Automatic annotation (TrEMBL), chain A:
Pfam families noted in UniProt: FeS_assembly_P
Matches recorded under Gene3D superfamilies: Fe-S cluster assembly (FSCA)
The MIP18 family-like domain, residue ranges: 6-78
Protein name in the entry: Metal-sulfur cluster biosynthetic enzyme
Species this chain originates from: Kribbella sandramycini
UniProtKB/TrEMBL annotation, chain B:
Record keyword Hydrolase present: yes
Keywords: Hydrolase
Listed name of the protein: Amidohydrolase
Any GO molecular function: hydrolase activity
Organism: Kribbella sandramycini
Length: 226, 345
């Protein structure tokens, strides 16, 4: 990988699988990065041919956006390989047709709400992770009134702050941790159910991420990621 | 029947298929992609000694199915849940003639469920009437991501779907198995979303809705809906084999299900021929929630018996020997059950 290819690859680290809440570079979805002069060509791959086409499109379109934003790229080609909608999505990407232009009658408005749904889930999971760690340390932790300042200074708290910022929640030290996606806290009596529900979200996302990594390895056993 | 340590387990494999994915039945590249996806699931989640060759995986036939389920697999009764996939396979994926004939030959061992597609309109309603009579249907398997001409998905709360569910009610087809897939119209929304099940479960309280693979990859949405709807059940297709590759995750799935929907609404299946029941039954009977996952109570033998067969047997009115039956748990009909202690169950 030359310097520009490395730059392109690093830029792709900002593209997140919305369902799994992890960068596509960490997930091994970037199959190859090739730069010739100022033209960059990236191939993406997914764990199955039947991964949801709306998420596949989102990741491929986001990849094209971050590469186009680099100041030295002139021609950006992003290709999704081996997917049931590869042809449709690749054609749409090449023509910069956008989501509706790509999927035509199957698209109604846009994918903003879909993206938001999963940004909220990512926040919920990050919140549960922090609070459950806290509970394991302090069984009597008053969950309804725990603030960001009460959390340890570690990567889980950092992750929670980032997820909060993404969906527009405050990240100041006095901000309450256990809140819904609008920032509304829970009454004492509603705390156990809220945390249990958040836990099922965290387990679901973690489980899916692990399964997807495993399937990717099974599908491409002999092929390293970019 | 499976017996171990003096306990007898009546086994119902609530989701099996007799499929034909051989190249001569594939209509296009998607037929190959679909079975390849299944084969990757199989290879990824099976113990090494249980992995089949690709050729074996394409087609099994009735004799092998009978052997894998009933001779080797401890299964007392199995339910066919066929996916049509007519856009991918010339004669469909699930083999209607072969499977229904097998079920007719072995009525004590096999139940044949069929499928419908609300996009077939009036003609499909007539077909459902005919199918109900021909197969004596108690249940149907619905795949909401089925492709159909220009459409690549439908929702259970579409108006035409309501017509079909009303007909199910009229014909005594009470067990609606739902399988969520990746495509649905419009693509704006999450295709795996289970909210449509919430609507129909509320409007058809006399029908059972069994959500296959317990809503995965949306376990959390499934649990939240199912806890509020007493007629929503969880099928363990695809979730079961995690018992081998990811026992801790499997424990969390089971722990969550027991908390949100309780022990009477969870059904075992191997999802044959994705996997085979023998190793799954053996593993599940031996399985226990890891001690450090203190938020979940240990799994009891009675719970295992219910999940492995008694729950599905009750839904399908199967003739379970009296000494193997168990009473329902004394639990709330809706809402989470169990301890609200967040670190210790």
């Amino acid at each position: 990988m030359n310097v520009q290819e490395k730059q392109a690859y690093d830029a792709l680290g900002a593209v997140v699988d919305p369902e799994l809440d992890e960068p596509i570079t960490d997930l091994g979805f970037v199959r190859s990065v090739t730069v010739t002069d100022s033209a960059v060509e990236v191939h993406l791959r997914l764990p199955t041919a039947f991964c949801a086409p709306n998420f596949a499109y989102l990741m491929a379109a986001d990849a094209k956006d971050v590469l186009t934003a680099l100041d030295w790229t002139h021609l950006v080609t992003v290709q999704l390989d081996d997917h049931h909608d590869s042809e449709l999505i690749n054609r749409g990407l090449a023509a910069d047709a956008g989501y509706r232009g790509t999927f035509k009658h199957e698209a109604e408005q846009d994918l903003d709400e879909l993206r938001l749904t999963f940004q909220r889930k990512a926040h919920t999971a990050a919140m549960e992770r922090c609070l459950t760690y806290l509970l394991r340390e302090r069984r009597d932790a008053p969950l309804a009134s725990v603030t960001l300042a009460d959390l340890p200074d570690d990567q889980h708290t950092d992750a929670l702050r980032r997820r909060r910022a993404t969906i527009g929640l405050p990240t100041t030290p006095d901000a309450l941790v256990l809140v819904d996606h609008t920032g509304t806290p829970y009454a004492e009596a509603a705390v156990p159910l809220a945390l249990r529900r958040a836990r099922s979200t965290r387990i679901s996302i973690e489980g899916n991420a692990h399964f997807c990594r495993g399937l990717l390895r099974t599908r491409y056993p002999d092929e390293e990621t970019a | 029947m499976y017996s171990k340590d003096g306990e007898n387990y009546y086994i119902v494999d609530a989701h099996v298929a007799l499929w034909d994915a051989r190249p001569e039945n594939q209509r296009n590249i998607h037929g190959k992609q679909f079975i390849d996806c299944f084969y990757d699931y199989h290879r990824n989640l099976s113990p090494e000694q249980e992995v089949w060759s690709y050729d074996d995986y394409l087609y099994q036939g009735g004799e092998r199915l009978l052997r894998d389920l009933f001779e080797l697999g401890y299964v007392d009764h199995a339910v066919f849940q066929p996916a049509y996939l007519g856009e991918f396979y010339g004669n469909g994926f699930g083999q209607t003639e072969e499977a229904s004939k097998l079920a007719a030959e072995h009525p004590g061992k096999l139940t044949y469920n069929h499928n419908f597609d609300p996009r077939n309109g009036e003609a499909g309603l007539d077909q459902l009437r005919a199918d109900a009579e021909r197969f004596g249907l108690k249940g149907v398997k619905l795949y909401t991501a089925e492709w159909h001409g220009e459409s690549r998905g439908w929702r259970l709360d579409d108006p035409w779907s309501y017509r079909y569910l009303e007909l199910c009610r009229e014909l005594g087809i009470t067990n609606i198995h739902v399988h969520k897939g990746p495509t649905i119209r419009p693509l704006d929304r999450d295709a795996f979303d289970v909210a449509d099940i919430d609507h129909v479960a509320t409007d058809f309280t006399d029908l059972n809705f069994v959500v296959e693979h317990v809503g995965l990859p949306r376990l959390e949405d499934f649990c939240w809906i199912a806890t509020q709807e007493p007629n929503v059940h969880g099928g363990l297709a695809v979730a079961m084999p995690f018992i081998h590759t990811r026992p801790r995750y499997f424990a969390q799935i089971i722990g969550e299900l027991l908390y949100w929907i309780g022990e009477d609404r969870i059904q075992f299946s191997s999802d044959y021929a994705l996997w085979t029941p023998k190793w799954l039954v053996e593993s599940f009977v031996d399985f226990q929630i890891p001690a450090d996952l203190t938020e979940y109570a240990p799994l009891t033998t009675a719970q295992k018996k219910k999940i492995l067969g008694l729950n599905a047997a009750k839904m399908y009115d199967l003739d379970v020997p009296a000494e193997l039956r168990l009473p329902d748990a004394d639990e709330t009909a809706t809402g989470p059950r169990g301890a609200d202690d967040l670190v210790d169950a």
